[in-house]
Structures are given as C-alpha cells and as structure tokens.
Design a protein that fits this description.
The complex is a heterodimer of chains A (385) and B (715). Chain A is 38% helix and 16% strand. Chain A is an alpha/beta fold. Chain A folds into three domains: 3-52, no CATH class; 71-165 and 273-375, D-Maltodextrin-Binding Protein, domain 2 (3-Layer(aba) Sandwich); 169-269, 3-Layer(aba) Sandwich (D-Maltodextrin-Binding Protein, domain 2). In chain A, strands 1, 5, 6, 7, 8 and 14 form a six-stranded mixed sheet that branches. Chain B is mainly alpha-helical. Among the domains of chain B are: 35-77 and 151-242, no CATH class; 381-493, no CATH class; 506-715, MetI-like fold. Helix content of chain B is 68%, strand content 2%. Chain B has 27 helices and four strands. In chain B, the strands form two sheets. Chain B has a two-stranded antiparallel sheet. A two-stranded antiparallel ribbon of chain B has the order 3-4. In chain B, helix 5 packs antiparallel against helix 15, helix 20 (507-533) packs across helix 26 and helix 21 (538-553) packs across helix 23 (579-605). Classes of the chains: A alpha/beta (385), B mainly alpha (715). At the A-B interface, helix 1, strand 2, strand 5, helix 8 and helix 9 of A face strand 3, helix 15, helix 18, helix 19 and helix 20 of B.
C-alpha cells in the first residue's frame, strides 16, 4: 500500500509546485498575452525566456522602453480601459466584444498605432478601479466616459485628452405629472428625486435644488436599474443622471402607457467626457490627442470611412492631404506610420460617423453642443499643419 | 456546461476517495409500510397543534411557490436575455471558433467521472422501485399543482408587450378581484379557521380518539385553502389575463409532462403488483442516466428554441429546434459518461479496481492543470527552446535524481545517505541565494527541481526497501520530473487563443477554475499548516499559529483586493499576475487557514495509542504521519472540509467585487447593461442562483455519501 501511495503523494506535490513555480521569478503564472520573439529576448535576464507583456512604466533594463508610446508599440496591442457596462459608450455584447463610442475611439487609436483597429484589448473597469488601473499600468489609456475635472487632472496625477462627448446631468420625469421638455429645476419642488448613491449626481441635484430655492426629497439607491424600476412603478417622481444615460433608458425602457421627458435643456452640470492617460507621457499623449483630432478634422471636411480612399487619391485641400499621409505629413514625426489616420478613418470612421453609429439606436442625436464648431457646437480641432 | 451536473458524476473527484475503506455501508431495514392516510394522520395531523402547524406551513410554502412560479413564468420576464447570453455567462469572451476546447474539457471530466463511478463507487442497494414510483408520481403531482397554482398568462399584443388594463376600470368588482385585493385577510381567516377547528376538536377531546373525521375536516380545510390560492390567480390585477380554459390549454406541454411522469410512476406501481416485488432495487446511477437521457433526447425532439448572438446579430427563434452546436456535444457527453461508466463496471468486475484506484485519482489531480494549460490556453510552444533546453533539462533531472533516489533508498545506506542529503539541501539553498544576489544564471525550474530533489533526499530513508520497491520510487521520481517540466513549459508558453478582453475566459468557467485551483493549492497547505501547528517544534508551531490567526483575522475581500489590484505593484518590473492567478492565490491563502483548523481538529481526534503503537513498530515521524495519523485525521475532518469546499465555491462570487467577470457579475451588471436587454437583471440573477444551488447541493449530497461510507460519526 505504501509503495503505491508514495508516488501518488509525490506526483501531487510536483503538480502543485509546477503550478505555482511555473513562471520565472514571480512564483506565479504571469500574463503572457501579446508576446513577440523580440519581447522574449529582451526580457530574458539570462533566465528562462519569460514572455510577459510589459506593463510597468519604470522598467529601465534590458532594452525595454520607458516611454509609454514605445512601450505600447513594443507590445503591439493597445490595452484600453472601458466601462463595458454603459450603453452608447461601451457595452459588452454576448460574445464578449465591446461596442460603443468609447470602444470605437480605442479602435481609432489602435488603427493609428498599428494600422489594425482590432489590435485592442478591452479591460472593463468599474468607476472605483479605473484610475488605479491606469496608474499601475494595467491599462494604457482610459476611454471610460470619464469627466474631466480639475482635481483629477491635478491631484490624481492624470492627463486628459480632448473631450469626445459633452454630456451633462439632466432630470427625467413623467409627462403625466405635468413635466415637459421645457421644465426647469424649480418645477420639481416637493418631488421624490432618485439618484445613484455616493456619486456626484447626488450632490449636483441637491445643489441645483438649493440654488433654485426648492425642497426635494432625495432618495439614493445603489443601482441605476433599480432606480428606473422605481421610476416606472411611480416610487420615484424624478430620476437624474447624465443626459446620454437618461436618453438611452428612455429609448429602451419607457413603458407604452408612460411618456418620459428629459429636462432642463441646459443641464445642471458639465460633464465633458475625455480620454485619460498617465501623467508626463507627452509623446503618447500626442497620439491620443491627434487620433481624436484626426476624426474631428475628417468630420469637418466630410472625409468618411466610405470616401476616404478617394480622398487620398484626390484630397480636397492640403490639410486633408497631410492628415491622410500625403506630402508634408506629420505622423512620422509623432512616431506613427504616415497613413496612421487614414487607417483610423477607413477602419473606424470620422467623429460624426462614430457618434451617429451609437447614438441613433438609443434615440439620440449629436445635438447642438456636440455639433461641429461650424454648426455652432463645441467640437473643434486644432489645424493639422 | 462546464461540468456534469449529476451527483454521481462527481463521486471520485475527491482525493478523500483514496482513504475510502472497502466496507459495505450498513443498511437500514425498510420502514414498515403505511397507507397514505395512516401516514398523514400519524405525521401531519397527530395532534391539534401539529395540525395547525401543518396547515399554516403548507399555506406559506404554497404562497412562496406560487410567487416563484409567477415570477419565473411571467410574460414580463425577458428570459431571452439569459438564453442569448448562456455562452457569455459560462465562458465570457472565450472565442466561439475555439469552443471545441471547452467541449474537450467537459468530455474529459465526463470520461473520468464515468470511469471513477463505474470502477470505484459502491453500488449499494440503489433505489427501490417503490421509492422510484412514488418519486415519479410525486413529481408529476407537484408539476400538476404548479400548473394550477400559476396565474394565467398575461395577454400580449402583436409586439410581444403585455397589455395593461384600463386604469379607469375598477379593481375589486368581482369576488376573485376581492380575494386578490384582500390576500392577507383571506390568509389570516383561513389560518384562524384552521386553528379554531383544531382547538375545538381538541377541547372536545375527540381529536385522536374518534376516528378520522376531525382530521378529514382539517384536510378539507387545507384543500379549500389551496383552492382559494388558485382562484385568487384569476384576478385581473393590473394586466389583462387569459381565461382559465386558455391558461390550461397553453400549458398542455406541462400537463403532458406531469401526466407522463405520474403515469410512469403509476405504471411501475401497479405493474409490479405487490409490496414484495415493489421492493426490488435499481442502481441509482441508472436512474440518473435515464433522467439525463430524457433531457438530452428532449433537445432533439422538443423545440426549445434557438437563441444566440452570432457575428453581431441577435438570433431569437422561439419554437425552432435546438442548435446542433448545443445538442450534439451534449449527446456526445452523455454517451461518453455512460460508456465509460459501463467500461468502469466491466473493469471492476474483472477485478481491476484496486490497481486502477491510485492512477485514476492521480488523473483527477492532473486534470485541472492539463485542461487549463494545455487545452484551454492552447500554448504556443517554442520548439527550438523545448528541444534545446526543456527536454534535456528534464532528462538530466530525471536521470540524476533517479540515481540519487535509488542510492538513498537503500536500507543500509546509513551516515553516507545523511551526508549526501545535506549536501543536496545545501546546493538547493545556494541556488536560491544565488538567484537573490544574481550570482549565476539558472532557470527557475532548475532551482525548483534541485529543491524537490533535496526534499526527496531528506525523506528517502523513510521509504527504504528492496529492489522492486526502490525501482518504483525511481519511476515515481521520473514521472514527477516529466510532469513538472512539461507543466512549466506549458505555463511559460503564450496562449494562442485570442480574446477581445484581458482574460482568457470569465463567467462560470472562472468560478470553477478559481475554486478548483484554490482547493488544489489550499489542501496541501492546510495539511502542512495543521501538522506544523500541532508539531512539537516551537518554531513551526509559532509560525503556523501566526499564519492561521492572521489569515483568519483578515476579511477575504481585503485579501482579494490585495492580490488582484495591489500585489502587481510589488512585483519586479515587467511582470504581473493575471487577475485569475491573483484571485486564486488570495483564496488559497485564506482557505488554507480554515482547512488547517478543520484538519487540526481531526488530528486531535487521533488517539494517543495510535502514536504510541506506530512508535512501537519503529515508524519514523514521517511514516507515522503519512500512514497512521493523517488517514485517520482526514477521515474525521470530512464534514467540515466539505463545508469549507462549498464555502469556497460560493465565495468565488466575491470576484465580482474585485473587478473580475465572474458568473455573478455578468448576470448582475453586464447583461442588464446590454442595450438589447437594458435593465433586465432578475432573470440572470435567478438563473445564476439556480446553477450555484445545483453545484452546492450536489457537493453536500456527495459529502453525505462519503461520510456514510467512511462511517464518520458512527465510530
């Protein structure tokens, strides 16, 4: 009996050791995605060829780049932090793919960096995790409908790219209760207002009520699905969230026998949603900024994913020519391929296309504020020259 | 998906099987049979108080069941959200074109389960035909009652939306509506009436003496109460509902199922004729196979519908047959399970059980590693490196270590062996010191191999024996080296499976993976910690006590946050733990502390005399621990150990809080955020709870069987 049990016990021990001692140096399985043979050579410190993805920013040895842009290009894949649970911006579909405005901007960046819009790895992050994930190098860039604020830009140690969507907190109520699209904050006096607990929306709505000099009953709940349910059953008179979120809910969840309205027309808060990247990485920051700007310039000039091939052949003006990689292009100087933005626009689309693709199914339009500056909106890019 | 769900299927997965004795379980004599009426009056209406309790709790259970049924089958439920997301819930973003790998995993588990159960499980007497028939009839009856209890379906319009009643129409204009509006009052009146009747009969002193009438009166009241609950369902409420006839016609499939089950039960009952013949037994596994066969067959015969998300399109075809990609693999799995079970039975009859027990249990231990690293990850092996480095190194350690083992296991090796062991330990330690200071390069797995060799060298004299015995030890060492080096090579190769997210898979696959690896890591750790805590050596005792108290004192969620989110910041540059590895380490460290305490309880239950006896026959400490103390201690610890296993399985839902996409988080947060199913959350949560329950319940049943077989609590 003992002779049979001993080998059993020993193999068991070996298997356990094999699993935890498998990876080199760490004593635990390491991330092994996105590896190339160069990566293997570079990280080999005369030890076994571990092929790990470079994540931390402070690697100085073995030829692994310290610069964020070099690091991302070296990995050959952009790791993009998204929400994964926010309709319009990034929702996770039943096959695990991520779609939405934020996801498309990740793909724009991947197309600009690698010429392949699919060279993205999406990491779904909660609001609590997102900044830590960026600081620890778990993600390269955040497109996670994050509001650009002074404290985040300074205290938290992050840098923000250009605003990709101007959102703002609004209120939603039932028409049957006497509300209309032209209602104002003052009209909700005495109403039960439901907001997400522990968020700035809660703070904003009570500030707005104070400013309007009215009393409201503020009910905070942990889950927006529950808030909407209470709103449908009538337990909440008014709900509040970012305008885009309210519009998405109205499009999908408004029952037949109710009519919901969103007001006031000028939101009670400013929520400029912008990409975020680590502080002091200006070369990488340039790529984030200009990838977004390129889609905006293409939108201004009417360059779409459908006609971009013709536009390369016969560009409408010198700026478009430079942007699409023709004579005088500036992408090479940024460390990108000359046709980087051509790839981005042909594979993903321009700013207007990206917004329309995801806003329209939710019953939203670009509206006046996210229109191009030529149409009186705020979407404006510096010139490409 | 993921694992076979039958209780029998999991039987031999437990290493505890290795200590299972050969005893037949003690059989209880069959209860003397009572007629249904006798049983009812003896158990449910034996006294006034008992009758009141029976009636009240029957009503409460029926109310709860009715609520659950109405919730589950309501037209307002979007079950399509779960059906479309089944693959997502179980494996998250694992690519569909690689799905064959998932099925290989399920198949391997099916084969091992079938073999283990067929080969090793004790058949016992199985299930008596009487019980089987009663269970079938009972299930049919419960389904029938469920059909009656459920409220009629809401009327839906052409777009599939529920039609609401005109709010102007008064509620409460009929008796039925009045019942519905005063549900609590009605319930109160019924309960009160029951109590009054019971107390009245009791005061008359006739309850037990005067024949069955009082009890029959009570039974009638129960029936009236159930009737009220059913009638109540036909109140219109807020939405327009079908009529009774339409509702019953709609449920014709359910009626058919209930009738088939009850009919089959009745056929068995009356077909067998008398009580003696009803007491024949069928093996429990055959009943399980028959039940699963019905499920698999129904996938071929009944149009369950086809729901999927393929290439960006939602496919929703209610009433169409089940997709081939679902029913074919499940059929294959069933055939594999039954086939290997029969094979195992045949081998068992041929007397191979005792020889195959150890290899089979080893295969079970190896399976999670092989399935994860070789099958699911599909490692991209660098063959140049494998041929130039990995294989030669494995061969070197196998040969060198084999010689060392052969030499050291000699019975009369004496002092020379001790010196050699110490030298090997020195080499192993030096290698790690060198790694810290960077003195000379060496592959990590070489360092671990040296360490393993040193441990084996230290222990070898405990296993000294004759030539055949020593040869077996050498073979074992070679096997260890082969497995170990092969695994390290797999772990160090990148995966070729490309997913759109940072994890290979998520959902239930993550739940199972984390739970399995946690237990595989925590169990040996727990045993070692328990031994250390009961050791005579103060340094071991203090360290183990400190570890256990620290890890039992820290909340699990803190550990998870640390290992999933923070630990990477402490690792040297260029490396990071994946979420799943970090979570597994966190869980394992935590579970090990609890397992250690459970096992320590078992160790303390081993009697002093056992230690003294093993000393008397000249066993060394290692031999005594391995062959005398641990087997007895683990046998005693089985109930708390299984409790810990179930707890670990359920605690994996905390992964959601640490930001991972486990089963619960997908149902709770992700599906309800898909624009197709915005706000649809309860369906997913109910489904997830059901799956958790199936697994936890089967684990607990399995532990009961092990306890029974090992006679825990009887000796």
């Amino acid at each position: 009996m003992s002779s049979a049990r001993l080998p059993a016990a020993l193999v068991l021990a070996a298997v356990a050791l094999g699993s935890c001692g498998g990876s080199d140096r760490a004593g635990a399985p390491v991330q092994q995605e996105a590896t190339t043979s160069e990566a293997a050579e570079a990280t080999t410190t005369a030890a076994e060829a571990t092929t790990t993805r470079v994540t931390s920013l402070d690697i100085v040895s073995n030829g692994v780049p310290t610069n964020m842009l070099d690091k991302v290009q070296y990995n050959g894949e952009l790791v993009c932090g998204v929400s994964g649970t926010r309709v319009i911006f990034s929702e996770t579909q039943p096959d695990g793919s991520v779609v939405g405005v934020d996801a498309d901007f990740c793909r724009v960046m991947a197309a600009a960096l690698f010429g392949d819009a699919d060279a993205v790895e999406f990491v779904s992050l909660t609001t609590g995790e997102r900044f830590a994930a960026l600081q620890s190098g778990r993600v390269d860039v955040l497109f996670r409908s994050t509001t650009w604020t002074q404290s985040r830009d300074t205290e938290v140690g992050l840098d923000f790219g250009p605003v990709i969507y101007y959102d703002g907190q609004q209120l939603m109520a039932r028409e049957s209760d006497g509300f209309s699209a032209s209602s104002q904050v003052g009209d909700i006096a005495g109403a039960v207002v439901c907001a997400l607990a522990g968020t700035t929306t809660e703070q904003n709505v009570s500030d707005a009520a104070d400013a309007a000099g009215i009393d409201i009953t503020l009910t905070t709940l942990e889950d927006f699905d529950v808030i909407i349910e209470n709103f449908i059953t009538g337990a909440c008179d008014v709900t509040t969230a970012d305008g885009s979120a309210l519009a998405g809910r109205k499009a999908k969840q408004q029952p037949d026998d109710q009519e919901w309205v969103i007001f006031p027309a000028i939101p009670i808060s400013k929520e400029p949603l912008a990409p975020v990247y680590p502080q002091n990485q200006s070369r990488f920051g340039d790529v984030v900024n200009w990838a977004v700007y390129a889609t905006i310039i293409a939108d201004e000039k009417g360059i779409t994913s459908d006609n971009v091939a013709e536009m390369v052949a016969g560009p409408p003006d010198a700026e478009a020519r430079r942007l699409l990689g023709g004579e005088g292009e500036l992408q090479s100087a940024m460390g990108l391929a000359p046709d980087a933005f051509y790839q981005a626009i042909s594979q993903v689309g321009n700013y207007g296309e990206i917004l329309a693709r995801h806003l329209e199914p939710a019953g939203l339009t670009r509206g006046s504020i996210n229109a191009s500056w030529r149409d009186g909106g705020l979407i404006y890019a510096p010139p490409a020259r | 998906m993921g694992m076979p769900m039958g209780d029998g299927a999991v039987t031999a997965a437990d290493p505890a099987e290795a200590w299972a004795g050969e005893r037949e379980p003690a059989q209880k004599p069959e209860e003397p049979s009572l007629s249904a009426g006798e049983w009812l009056s003896k158990n449910l209406f034996s006294s006034a108080a008992n009758s009141v309790l029976t009636v009240v709790f029957t009503l409460l259970v029926l109310l709860a069941v009715r609520g659950l049924l109405n919730f589950t089958f309501s037209e307002e439920r979007t079950w399509r959200a779960v059906k479309t997301n089944v693959r997502f819930l179980f494996t998250h973003a694992y690519p569909q074109d690689q799905y064959a790998r998932i099925w290989v995993c399920v198949g391997v588990i099916a084969v091992l389960s079938g073999l283990s159960v067929g080969l090793l499980a004790k058949t016992g007497r199985g299930i008596s035909m009487k019980r089987l028939s009663m269970n079938l009839m009972g299930t049919g009856g419960v389904i029938g009652l469920g059909i009656l209890l459920r409220e009629p379906s809401a009327v839906v319009d052409s777009e599939g939306l529920v039609v609401h009643r005109d709010p102007a129409a008064a509620v409460g204009d009929s008796f039925v509506d009045w019942l519905d509006g005063n549900a609590l009052t009605v319930l109160g009146v019924l309960v009160l009436a029951n109590a009054v009747v019971a107390v009245w009969f009791h005061l008359q002193g006739t309850y037990l003496r005067d024949g069955p009438e009082p009890r029959l009166a009570h039974g009638a009241l129960v029936l009236v109460s159930i009737g009220v609950l059913i009638v109540q369902q036909y109140a219109s409420g807020e939405v327009v509902r079908e009529s009774f006839a339409e509702a019953m016609a709609d449920r014709s499939w359910w009626w058919l199922a209930a009738a088939l089950l009850a009919g089959a039960g009745a056929a068995v009952w009356f077909g067998l004729g008398d009580a003696r013949r009803r007491n024949t037994f069928v093996p429990a596994m055959y009943v399980f196979f028959a039940a699963t066969a019905v499920m698999v067959l129904s996938a071929w015969l009944y149009p369950w519908g086809h729901y999927a998300f393929l290439e960006g399109e939602f496919i929703s075809e209610p009433g169409s047959t089940v997709a081939m990609t679902t029913k074919l693999p499940w059929t294959v799995m069933w055939v594999l399970l039954v086939g290997t079970f029969l094979l195992g039975r045949a081998l068992s009859t041929a007397g191979a059980a005792s020889r195959l027990r150890v290899p089979l249990n080893l295969l079970w231990v190896m399976t999670p590693f092989v399935l994860y690293w070789a099958v699911l990850r599909d490692p991209d092996l660098d063959w140049d490196h494998v041929l130039s480095t990995d294989i030669p190194m494995a061969v070197f350690f196998a040969a060198f270590g084999g010689l060392v083992v052969w030499y050291l296991a000699h019975p009369r090796i004496g002092e020379a062996g001790r010196i050699m062991a110490v030298v090997l330990v020195g080499v192993a330690v030096l290698n790690w010191v060198a790694a810290y200071f960077g003195w000379y390069p060496m592959l990590q797995k070489a360092r671990i191999s040296f360490l393993l060799l040193a441990v084996v060298a230290l222990l070898a004299h405990n296993f000294a024996g004759d030539r055949t015995h020593r040869m077996r030890l050498v073979v074992a060492w070679v096997a260890i080296m082969a497995v170990f080096h092969w695994l390290v090579t797999l772990v160090n190769s990148p995966s070729t499976v490309d997913t759109p997210t940072d994890a290979l898979f998520g959902g239930f696959a993550t739940t199972l993976t984390v739970a399995t690896f946690t237990l595989l890591l925590a169990f040996p750790m727990g045993v070692l910690l328990a031994l250390a805590r009961t050791s005579k050596l103060p340094i071991f005792r203090v360290l183990a006590t400190a570890y256990i108290e620290v890890f039992r004192g820290v909340p699990l969620i803190t550990l998870l946050f640390f290992f999933v989110l923070i630990f990477n910041l402490f690792l040297p540059g260029g490396m990071s733990l994946t979420d799943i590895a970090g979570a597994t380490i966190g869980f394992a460290l935590f579970s090990a502390a609890y397992l250690a305490e459970n096992i320590r309880g078992g160790l303390q239950a081993v009697r002093r005399g056992q230690y003294e006896a093993s000393d008397a026959v000249g066993f060394s400490t290692v031999q005594r621990t391995l062959f005398i103390v641990l087997p007895q201690a683990l046998r005693v610890s089985i109930p708390p150990l299984v409790g810990q296993v179930i707890a670990t399985f359920k605690e994996t839902s905390l992964l959601a809080v640490a930001g991972m996409f486990d089963f619960l988080r997908i149902a709770d947060k992700v599906i309800s955020a898909q624009s197709e199913f915005l706000g649809v959350k309860r369906e997913g949560l109910l489904f997830v709870s059901f799956i958790y329950w199936i697994f936890a319940y089967n684990m607990s049943k399995h532990s009961q069987r092990i306890e029974k077989r090992l006679g825990v609590g009887e000796r």
